[in-house]
Design a protein that fits this description.
This protein has about 230 residues and is an alpha/beta fold. It is built from five helices and 14 strands.
Protein backbone atom coordinates (compact mmCIF):
# COMPACT_ATOMS: atom_id res chain seq x y z
CA UNK A 1 0.00 0.00 0.00
CA UNK A 2 1.33 3.45 -0.94
CA UNK A 3 2.21 5.76 1.91
CA UNK A 4 -0.47 8.35 2.68
CA UNK A 5 0.50 11.78 1.32
CA UNK A 6 -1.25 14.42 3.42
CA UNK A 7 -1.10 17.17 0.80
CA UNK A 8 -2.18 14.94 -2.09
CA UNK A 9 -4.53 12.40 -0.47
CA UNK A 10 -6.53 14.74 1.78
CA UNK A 11 -10.23 15.34 1.12
CA UNK A 12 -11.38 18.01 -1.31
CA UNK A 13 -13.51 20.95 -0.19
CA UNK A 14 -16.56 19.28 -1.77
CA UNK A 15 -15.93 16.10 0.23
CA UNK A 16 -15.55 18.06 3.47
CA UNK A 17 -18.79 19.94 2.71
CA UNK A 18 -20.57 16.65 1.98
CA UNK A 19 -19.47 15.19 5.31
CA UNK A 20 -20.57 18.27 7.24
CA UNK A 21 -23.98 18.19 5.52
CA UNK A 22 -24.65 14.68 6.82
CA UNK A 23 -24.70 15.92 10.43
CA UNK A 24 -27.16 18.80 9.98
CA UNK A 25 -30.33 17.77 11.78
CA UNK A 26 -33.75 17.67 10.17
CA UNK A 27 -35.71 20.85 10.84
CA UNK A 28 -32.62 22.99 11.51
CA UNK A 29 -32.23 26.67 10.71
CA UNK A 30 -28.70 27.10 9.40
CA UNK A 31 -26.41 29.91 8.26
CA UNK A 32 -23.57 28.97 5.91
CA UNK A 33 -20.53 31.23 5.83
CA UNK A 34 -19.38 32.94 2.63
CA UNK A 35 -17.22 30.84 0.32
CA UNK A 36 -16.39 27.22 1.07
CA UNK A 37 -19.21 26.63 3.63
CA UNK A 38 -21.81 27.61 1.01
CA UNK A 39 -21.14 24.27 -0.70
CA UNK A 40 -22.89 22.42 2.14
CA UNK A 41 -26.36 23.33 0.82
CA UNK A 42 -25.54 21.41 -2.34
CA UNK A 43 -25.16 18.15 -0.40
CA UNK A 44 -28.22 18.24 1.83
CA UNK A 45 -29.36 14.62 2.28
CA UNK A 46 -32.56 13.76 0.42
CA UNK A 47 -35.65 13.88 2.58
CA UNK A 48 -34.09 16.13 5.21
CA UNK A 49 -35.70 19.51 5.78
CA UNK A 50 -33.14 22.25 6.44
CA UNK A 51 -33.90 25.97 6.23
CA UNK A 52 -30.90 28.03 5.15
CA UNK A 53 -30.49 31.65 6.25
CA UNK A 54 -28.35 34.33 4.65
CA UNK A 55 -27.64 37.54 6.51
CA UNK A 56 -28.43 39.78 3.53
CA UNK A 57 -32.10 38.89 4.05
CA UNK A 58 -33.33 35.52 2.77
CA UNK A 59 -34.68 32.53 4.68
CA UNK A 60 -35.31 29.30 2.82
CA UNK A 61 -32.96 29.34 -0.16
CA UNK A 62 -32.05 26.21 -2.09
CA UNK A 63 -29.23 25.00 -4.29
CA UNK A 64 -27.41 27.23 -6.75
CA UNK A 65 -29.21 27.56 -10.11
CA UNK A 66 -27.87 25.92 -13.23
CA UNK A 67 -25.50 28.01 -15.31
CA UNK A 68 -27.49 30.38 -17.51
CA UNK A 69 -30.56 30.19 -15.27
CA UNK A 70 -29.40 32.68 -12.64
CA UNK A 71 -31.67 35.45 -11.38
CA UNK A 72 -29.22 38.07 -10.14
CA UNK A 73 -31.89 39.66 -7.97
CA UNK A 74 -31.63 36.48 -5.88
CA UNK A 75 -28.21 36.25 -4.22
CA UNK A 76 -26.75 35.19 -0.89
CA UNK A 77 -24.39 37.18 1.33
CA UNK A 78 -21.46 36.08 -0.83
CA UNK A 79 -23.16 37.55 -3.92
CA UNK A 80 -23.69 34.04 -5.34
CA UNK A 81 -26.95 33.26 -7.18
CA UNK A 82 -29.48 31.15 -5.27
CA UNK A 83 -32.82 29.48 -5.83
CA UNK A 84 -35.78 29.65 -3.47
CA UNK A 85 -37.67 26.86 -1.76
CA UNK A 86 -41.45 27.02 -1.27
CA UNK A 87 -42.20 29.34 1.62
CA UNK A 88 -38.97 31.34 1.32
CA UNK A 89 -39.03 34.81 2.87
CA UNK A 90 -37.26 38.12 2.27
CA UNK A 91 -36.57 40.72 4.95
CA UNK A 92 -34.49 43.73 5.87
CA UNK A 93 -30.80 43.33 6.66
CA UNK A 94 -31.43 44.51 10.22
CA UNK A 95 -34.14 41.89 10.71
CA UNK A 96 -31.75 39.25 9.46
CA UNK A 97 -29.18 40.17 12.08
CA UNK A 98 -31.93 40.28 14.73
CA UNK A 99 -32.54 36.60 13.89
CA UNK A 100 -28.83 35.90 14.37
CA UNK A 101 -28.40 37.89 17.56
CA UNK A 102 -31.70 36.66 18.97
CA UNK A 103 -30.54 33.05 19.03
CA UNK A 104 -32.93 31.83 16.33
CA UNK A 105 -30.34 29.88 14.32
CA UNK A 106 -29.59 26.30 15.27
CA UNK A 107 -26.25 26.18 13.50
CA UNK A 108 -23.67 28.39 11.80
CA UNK A 109 -20.97 26.77 9.66
CA UNK A 110 -17.90 28.90 8.97
CA UNK A 111 -14.43 28.63 7.48
CA UNK A 112 -11.30 29.21 9.53
CA UNK A 113 -7.70 30.33 9.52
CA UNK A 114 -7.20 28.84 12.98
CA UNK A 115 -9.26 26.93 15.55
CA UNK A 116 -7.94 26.55 19.10
CA UNK A 117 -8.48 23.54 21.34
CA UNK A 118 -10.70 25.63 23.63
CA UNK A 119 -13.02 26.53 20.72
CA UNK A 120 -11.62 29.98 19.91
CA UNK A 121 -11.99 30.89 16.22
CA UNK A 122 -9.88 33.13 13.99
CA UNK A 123 -11.34 33.50 10.51
CA UNK A 124 -11.35 37.13 9.47
CA UNK A 125 -7.76 38.32 9.21
CA UNK A 126 -4.31 36.80 8.96
CA UNK A 127 -2.09 38.92 11.20
CA UNK A 128 -2.00 42.44 9.84
CA UNK A 129 -2.23 41.45 6.17
CA UNK A 130 -5.02 42.54 3.84
CA UNK A 131 -8.16 44.56 4.46
CA UNK A 132 -10.17 43.53 7.53
CA UNK A 133 -13.44 41.89 6.46
CA UNK A 134 -15.14 40.29 9.44
CA UNK A 135 -18.66 40.61 8.01
CA UNK A 136 -21.33 38.97 10.14
CA UNK A 137 -19.07 36.26 11.56
CA UNK A 138 -18.71 37.86 15.00
CA UNK A 139 -22.50 37.95 15.32
CA UNK A 140 -22.94 34.41 14.03
CA UNK A 141 -20.44 32.72 16.35
CA UNK A 142 -22.20 34.05 19.44
CA UNK A 143 -25.77 34.16 18.13
CA UNK A 144 -26.14 30.65 16.70
CA UNK A 145 -26.87 27.82 19.12
CA UNK A 146 -24.01 25.77 17.69
CA UNK A 147 -20.96 26.66 15.56
CA UNK A 148 -19.10 24.22 13.31
CA UNK A 149 -16.09 24.83 11.08
CA UNK A 150 -15.14 23.38 7.69
CA UNK A 151 -11.49 23.80 6.76
CA UNK A 152 -8.38 22.24 5.34
CA UNK A 153 -6.49 20.57 8.17
CA UNK A 154 -3.28 22.37 7.21
CA UNK A 155 -2.25 25.66 5.64
CA UNK A 156 -0.95 25.88 2.08
CA UNK A 157 2.59 25.41 3.38
CA UNK A 158 1.64 22.45 5.57
CA UNK A 159 1.36 24.22 8.92
CA UNK A 160 -1.42 23.35 11.40
CA UNK A 161 -4.74 25.17 11.44
CA UNK A 162 -5.85 23.39 14.61
CA UNK A 163 -3.74 24.86 17.38
CA UNK A 164 -3.31 25.17 21.13
CA UNK A 165 -3.94 28.89 20.96
CA UNK A 166 -4.89 31.15 18.05
CA UNK A 167 -2.24 33.67 16.99
CA UNK A 168 -4.45 35.52 14.49
CA UNK A 169 -7.08 38.12 15.51
CA UNK A 170 -10.06 36.31 17.04
CA UNK A 171 -13.57 36.14 15.67
CA UNK A 172 -15.03 34.55 18.79
CA UNK A 173 -14.07 32.99 22.12
CA UNK A 174 -14.88 29.38 22.93
CA UNK A 175 -17.54 29.21 20.24
CA UNK A 176 -16.64 26.23 18.02
CA UNK A 177 -17.87 22.77 19.01
CA UNK A 178 -17.02 20.70 15.92
CA UNK A 179 -14.49 20.84 13.07
CA UNK A 180 -14.68 19.04 9.73
CA UNK A 181 -11.28 19.02 8.06
CA UNK A 182 -9.61 17.48 5.04
CA UNK A 183 -8.23 14.74 7.32
CA UNK A 184 -10.60 14.32 10.25
CA UNK A 185 -13.80 15.08 12.14
CA UNK A 186 -13.01 16.55 15.54
CA UNK A 187 -15.22 17.60 18.45
CA UNK A 188 -14.18 20.33 20.85
CA UNK A 189 -15.13 19.43 24.39
CA UNK A 190 -13.74 20.47 27.75
CA UNK A 191 -10.97 22.53 26.14
CA UNK A 192 -9.67 19.56 24.14
CA UNK A 193 -9.73 18.25 20.58
CA UNK A 194 -11.60 14.91 20.58
CA UNK A 195 -10.92 12.86 17.45
CA UNK A 196 -14.07 11.20 16.07
CA UNK A 197 -13.11 10.22 12.52
CA UNK A 198 -9.98 10.21 10.36
CA UNK A 199 -9.41 9.41 6.71
CA UNK A 200 -8.51 5.75 6.06
CA UNK A 201 -4.81 5.05 5.61
CA UNK A 202 -3.66 7.98 7.73
CA UNK A 203 -1.87 6.94 10.92
CA UNK A 204 -2.52 8.59 14.24
CA UNK A 205 1.11 9.69 14.43
CA UNK A 206 0.92 11.37 11.01
CA UNK A 207 -2.34 13.12 11.90
CA UNK A 208 -0.96 14.32 15.22
CA UNK A 209 2.16 15.63 13.48
CA UNK A 210 0.08 18.11 11.44
CA UNK A 211 -2.16 19.11 14.35
CA UNK A 212 -0.94 21.91 16.58
CA UNK A 213 -2.50 20.57 19.78
CA UNK A 214 -3.00 17.15 21.32
CA UNK A 215 -5.71 14.96 19.80
CA UNK A 216 -7.61 13.03 22.46
CA UNK A 217 -9.54 9.81 21.89
CA UNK A 218 -12.76 8.85 23.64
CA UNK A 219 -14.03 5.53 22.34
CA UNK A 220 -13.56 4.26 18.81
CA UNK A 221 -12.22 6.46 15.99
CA UNK A 222 -14.26 5.78 12.85
CA UNK A 223 -13.06 5.95 9.26
CA UNK A 224 -13.96 9.20 7.53
CA UNK A 225 -15.75 7.83 4.47
CA UNK A 226 -16.98 10.17 1.72
CA UNK A 227 -17.99 9.74 -1.93
CA UNK A 228 -14.97 9.68 -4.24
CA UNK A 229 -16.41 11.93 -6.93
CA UNK A 230 -18.16 15.14 -5.93
CA UNK A 231 -18.53 18.18 -8.17
Amino acid sequence: MAEFNIMQDKLSNAQIAWRAAQDIEDGSYVNLGIGFPEMIAKFQPEGRDVTYHTENGVLGFGQAPKEGKEDWDLINAGKKPITLKPGAAFFHHADSFAMVRGGHLDLAVLGAYQVAQNGDLANWRVGTKGVPAVGGAMDLVHGAKRVAVVTDHVTKDGGPKLVERCTFPLTGLGCVTQVYTSLAVIDIKGGRFILREKVPGLSMDALQAVTGATLHIEGDVADLIVPEELA
